[in-house]
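lol forgot to send this yesterday, sorry. struct tokens for the thing we talked abt
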């Protein structure tokens, strides 16, 4: 009986603490939206878990404030002992997607070896770092790569993307251009370019390349193949 009473009391205290925390977060949200200005939308407010601060999310941006929303702190918070960038970790968590929700039929598909390891990229045909990535990916085996042609960098990026998509062998046309500089022949067909651009905007992809892995995590920007291999190994690889 005593044990049950203690457990019930502890549960009540925890529920009360959560309720108070939720009320505080609601008050912080109201104050921040008022200070940002009319029409401002705060996506979420939560206890940051350090320094008595609250984490405020507005779109893909994160900043911190105190309980009274009297001060706003911009920038990254790094844990001194471990050197962990807590802000970057949180942003990466918020940026995760459900990989199975990606419309993979809108991407150029390359299968090498058994194809069991899977990831997707958003790339512009005029992106220098994408070309570097394409060259390095030639050394990967037992992988399936889905490349979304995301023309956002140059005026003719869209035309190149459409020509690659309309080629008889999309993957070959992509690699011929990205690796060997062989411009794809002009061709016309129904392309998913507009849909891919809309998808990229929805996912808040601001630059190329951007990589997505089977666990939904993303890495914006170029990374060496060794890091891709490590990431896939860490998460298990399959979708």
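and heres what i got for the seq, position by position
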């Amino acid at each position: 009986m005593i044990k049950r009473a203690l457990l019930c009391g502890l549960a009540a205290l925890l529920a009360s603490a959560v309720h108070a925390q939720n009320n505080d977060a609601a008050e912080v949200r109201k104050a921040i939206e008022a200070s940002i200005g009319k029409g401002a939308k705060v996506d979420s407010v939560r206890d940051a878990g350090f320094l008595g601060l609250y984490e405020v999310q507005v779109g893909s941006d994160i900043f911190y404030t105190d309980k009274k929303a009297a001060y706003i702190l911009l920038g990254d918070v790094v844990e001194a002992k471990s050197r962990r960038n807590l802000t970057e970790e949180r942003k990466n968590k918020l940026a995760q997607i459900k990989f199975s929700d990606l419309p993979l039929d809108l991407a150029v598909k390359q299968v090498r070896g058994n194809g069991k390891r899977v990831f997707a990229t958003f790339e512009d045909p005029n992106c220098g770092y994408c070309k570097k990535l394409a060259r390095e990916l030639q050394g990967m085996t037992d992988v399936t790569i889905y490349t979304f042609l995301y023309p956002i960098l140059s005026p003719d990026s869209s035309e190149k993307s459409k020509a690659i998509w309309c080629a008889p062998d999309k993957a070959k046309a992509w690699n011929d251009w990205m690796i060997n500089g062989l411009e794809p022949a002009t061709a016309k067909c129904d392309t998913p370019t507009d849909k891919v651009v809309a998808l990229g905007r929805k996912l808040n992809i601001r630059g190329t390349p951007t990589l997505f892995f089977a666990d939904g995590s993303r890495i914006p920007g170029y990374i060496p193949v060794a890091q891709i291999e490590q990431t896939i190994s860490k998460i298990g690889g399959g979708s």
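Confidence is low (pLDDT under 50) at residues 5-21. anyway ping me if u want another try
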